[in-house]
Description:
Elements: E1 2-7, E2 18-23, E3 27-28, H1 30-38, H2 42-49, E4 59-63, E5 72-79, H3 86-101, E6 107-111, H4 125-139, E7 159-164, H5 170-195, H6 203-216, E8 222-227, H7 229-235, H8 238-244, E9 252-259, E10 268-272, E11 274-278, H9 298-313, E12 318-328, E13 339-342, E14 348-351, H10 358-369, E15 376-381, H11 385-391, E16 396-400, H12 403-415, E17 420-422, E18 440-441, H13 449-458, E19 466-470, E20 476-477, E21 483-484, H14 489-502
Helix pairs in contact: 3-4, 4-5, 5-9, 6-9, 8-10, 9-14, 10-13, 12-14
The structure holds ligand BES, manganese (II) ion and zinc ion.
Amino acid sequence: MEFSTKLSTPGSSKSACVVVGVFESRTLSAPAAALDKAAKGALSKIVQSGDMDGRAGTTLLLQRMPQLACERVLLVGLGPEKSFDAKAFRGALQAALRAVKSTGAKEAEIHLTALAAGKHNGGNVTWRVTQAAALAIEAFYRFDHMKSKPETPASALQRLSFAYAAASERGAAEKGLAQGMALGNGMSFAKDLGNLPGNVCTPTYLANQAKELAKHFRTAGMTVQILNTAEMKKLGMGTLLSVARGSAEPPKLIVLEYRGGPKNQKPVVLVGKGVTFDTGGTSLKPAGEMDEMKFDMSGAGSVLGTLKAVGEMRLPINVVGIIPATENMPGSRATKPGDIVTSMSGQTVEILNTDAEGRLILCDALTYAERFDPVAVIDIATLTGACVIALGHVVSGVFANDDALAQEVLAAGEASHDRAWHMPLHDEYQEQLKSNFADFANIGGRPAGAVTAACYLSRFTKKFKWAHLDVAGTAWKSGKEKGSTGRPVPLLTQYLIHRADEK
Length: 503
Ligand code: BES
Ligand code: MN
Ligand code: ZN
C-alpha cells in the first residue's frame, strides 16, 4: 500500500473513490458540501432521501455520479456534529477504511473532517493525518504468513491519499503522514512479534529482531548489545536467571540504544517484559487458553515497535530499550516454590509462585537501567491477571513513583487514544510482600494483585523516576478476533514525541 497526502478539492477530483463525511441529522461536512456543489445538489438529495442519515459507523457507496469526475463517492456517517471528537473521528475512519477495502477501487482519497471546536487537537491537520495513516495501516494489517495459503483475497486498493484543502497545510499534512506511518509500522511490528507462536518467537528470535532493527537504523544512531547467560550471571542477575532455569532456550538481555538527541541528553529507558512463553513454570498454569501466553512478550514487542517508530521518525531524542527475554518453563532444573534467589540489586526474593515471573525478570532489568542515568524509566509488561480483572481490556494500568511522570504518560495515552488509568501504589500495600525467609516474597496474595506486583517493582526503582504500565488486558484480544493489538506503541510513541517537542 502506498500512502500520500494530496492538495485536493473534492469537486474536481478524478479519484477512483472520494471519501467524505456526513453528520447525523443529515448535515454535510465541509468537503461533502463542496462535492455536493459540484454535483449540483445530488448529494444533499441522497442525504435528504434518508439513504445516508449520518449515523456513526454507516457508509454509502455511490457510483459514477453525473457532474463529478471521480469514479466513486463514499459517504461516511460521522455521528452528531457537536460531539465529533477523537473517538468519533477514529470510529468513522475505521468504518470508511472497511468500506473502501471492499470496493474494486485501486486508489482512494480521504477528506478528513476536523473535530468539533474545543475538542482536543481538533483543528490540527498533523494529528488528523497521523491518526488516519496509523488507522489505515491497522485496517490493512494481516497476519497470514504462517498459513500455507492466504484465506481471504487481499483488497484491490493500492494507493490511499489523505487530502488537505489549502496549500498552507501541506507541511502539517506531510508531518502527520510521516508520524502516522512510523506509528503504524511500529504497531505492525509489535503485532507480528506478539502473534508469532512461542516455537518461533523465542528469546533468540527477539534478539535477532533487535539486531536487524539496529542494523536498519544504524545511520540514525541505533546500536544493540545482547547479553547471554554467562554475562548475566556475572552481573548477578539471579532473579532473571531463576526464571530461565526451567527452559532449554537460552535467555537474552537485549539492550537497544537510540541516540537521536544531543550527546549529553539523559535517555528515556523503556523496559519490556519478554517472556516468549509463560507456562507458569513449576506453578503450572491450567491448560485452557494457555496458548495465549505466547503474548507474554508483548511488553518487549511494544519496546521494539516504539523504537522502530522513533527510528523512522528520526525523533531528536535519546531512548534506550531493555528487554529481558526468556521462556518460563517447568523443566527439571526449574525454580521451585520456596526457592530463594538474589537479585542484581542484592535484595533477596522468596519465590512463592513461579508464575509471578514477569516481576522477577523486570527487576534485574530495572537495576541494569541505572547505568544509563535515565531521565525516566517506563516498564511495559503483561504482568497480572489481576489488572485484567480491575480494568478489563479498555485501559492499561499506570503505576508510578513520580506524579508528573504519571500525568505525562496518561496525557500521551489520551492524545494517541491508547488510554491508561492511574492506579495506587501506597506504602500500605507493601506489607503483603512480607517473607519469613528472604527480604521479601514475589507475590502478595489475592487482594490488589496488580498493585502488589507494582509494589514489588518499586523496590528496584528508587534511583530514578519510574512508571509501570500493566498491559495484560490491552496488549492482545482473546476470542474470535484473537491477536495482538500493538498497544501500547501509540502511547509510548506519543510520550516520546511530546518529550522531543519540549526540547
Ligand atoms: N503473564 C501473566 C499475567 C497474565 C495473566 C497476563 C493472564 C494476561 C492474562 C503473569 O506472568 C502471571 O502469571 N501472573 C500471575 C501472578 C500471580 C501468580 C501472583 C497472575 O496474574 O495470575
Ligand atoms: Mn506468569
Ligand atoms: Zn507472565
